[in-house]
Design a protein that fits this description.
The chain is of the alpha/beta class. Helices cover 54% and strands 8% of the residues. It contains 16 helices and 6 strands. A 6-stranded mixed sheet has the order 5-4-3-2-1-6, with helices on both faces. A hairpin with a 5-residue loop joins strand 2 (47-50) and strand 3 (56-63). The relative contact order is 0.09.
């Protein structure tokens, strides 16, 4: 049976976007699944691992921040069991090749769920279900979970055994990222690990988003994902490199900011820079500003280094401006300004002795232009003073 081709009836592609836990678990399984496995999101279940030999792991993810989803009479607990049973009845899965898991964070416990998780044969599974039936019968009022619990308890024994004997609950620790950190710490420096994990989860989520938007199955090949992620880590996990993880701003955001004509854009207007240069300036300005805040917040750089960085760029601008004035004195002020701007944009310099991303120097120059610490037109200060606010 091919367990990948047909989505489960209770899955809801697209709804996961509001649930941060699911992409985290997808990333974990992409890192740890054996060779040949694939990982899906909201296809067969919240998360599922499709193994190369035809085995399937269905995982329901439960956030326990506000309540205990695995307490004895929790609706979430019994809805999961009844959903799994419905999949067997509907032949959506092969019961003989499927494992079932409830992943709960932060750590929560329940007598029933612990007994069911420990039941690995028919005898212990029947004993656990007998206890549940007995305690249910003694209740004075019917619990709200009965709409899911009772159908499961009334189901044929072979359906119950197929699930209970292959069921496990996982609820350890308060942070689901700890399991990922444990996998990656041997190969990633500690001060970079959370940044790279965030990027890895984002890579998986964005790829799944695109698949969903195109109406395709939200399944990722674990081998291919690991290959790409490990290449990403090798590129960005170097002590001599400052890595940007903020992403590229959207075209709409860039165009919107450019249309408001902030000072650094007005500076470019003075030297008649083209539209492409102006949009690139906005994008790099935003990315550089985000990098400065992110690196300082994470302690990757000393915030005071940014003052020295700015001073060095101002001095570099002055030298470039002097060279352009000497060599191109016959050219108009806008042309000279464009030459200064483009040479500054191509300048490369380290920050605290580490290589910075390509956009960072360019964005930093535009930040200085926005603060009027430098300009591209020889008379930028007086011209900007006459410009409309």
């Amino acid at each position: 049976m091919n367990a990948e081709t047909k989505p489960a009836k209770h899955s809801a592609p697209g709804q996961y976007l509001g649930f941060a836990l699911q992409p985290v678990r997808v990333f974990y399984h992409l890192l740890t699944s054996p060779k040949g496995a694939k990982v899906s999101l909201e296809f067969k279940d919240d998360v599922a691992v499709h193994y190369a030999d035809g085995e399937l792991l269905l995982e329901q993810t439960k956030s326990a921040l506000r309540q205990n989803p695995v307490s004895d009479w929790a609706g979430d607990l019994w809805k999961a069991f009844e959903n799994w049973r419905a999949m067997i009845v509907g032949k959506e899965i092969d019961a003989g090749f499927t494992d079932y898991r409830l992943y709960v964070t932060p750590q929560k416990k329940g007598d029933f769920v612990q007994a069911l998780s420990a039941a690995d044969d028919v005898h212990t599974a029947e004993a656990a279900l007998k206890v549940i039936r007995t305690k249910l019968a003694k209740l004075k009022t019917v619990p709200s979970c009965a709409e899911h619990l009772q159908p499961f308890l009334d189901a044929p024994a072979e359906q119950q055994m197929a699930i209970v004997t292959r069921f496990a609950v996982e609820s350890e620790g308060a942070d689901p990222l700890d399991a990922i950190r444990a996998v990656l710490l041997p190969v990633i420096s500690e001060n970079q690990i959370d940044v790279l994990i965030k990027s890895g989860i984002g890579q998986a989520k964005q790829t799944l988003d695109r698949l969903i938007q195109r109406g395709e199955r939200p399944i990722l090949d674990a081998d291919a994902f690991r290959r790409d992620f490990h290449a990403f880590v090798r590129q960005n996990n170097m002590p001599g490199l400052l890595t940007s993880f903020g992403g590229t701003p959207s075209d709409d955001l860039v165009a919107g900011i450019a249309s408001t004509r902030p000072i650094f854009i007005r500076q470019l207007e003075l030297v008649e820079a083209n539209d492409e240069e102006r949009l690139r300036a906005v994008s790099d300005y935003l990315r550089a500003s985000a990098d400065k805040a992110d690196w300082a917040d994470r302690g990757v750089i000393f915030p005071g280094s940014l003052d020295t960085w700015d001073d060095d760029l101002v001095r570099r601008h002055g030298m470039i401006r002097g060279d352009v004035s000497d060599i191109h004195s016959d050219r108009s002020a806008p042309v000279q300004g464009r030459l200064v701007y483009r040479q500054c944009a191509q300048h490369q310099a380290p920050l605290e002795g580490r290589v910075v991303p390509g956009h960072f120097v360019h964005g930093s120059f535009n930040d200085l232009a926005d603060r009027r610490r430098l300009g591209w037109h020889a008379n930028y200060d007086s011209l900007l003073g006459e410009a409309p606010e």
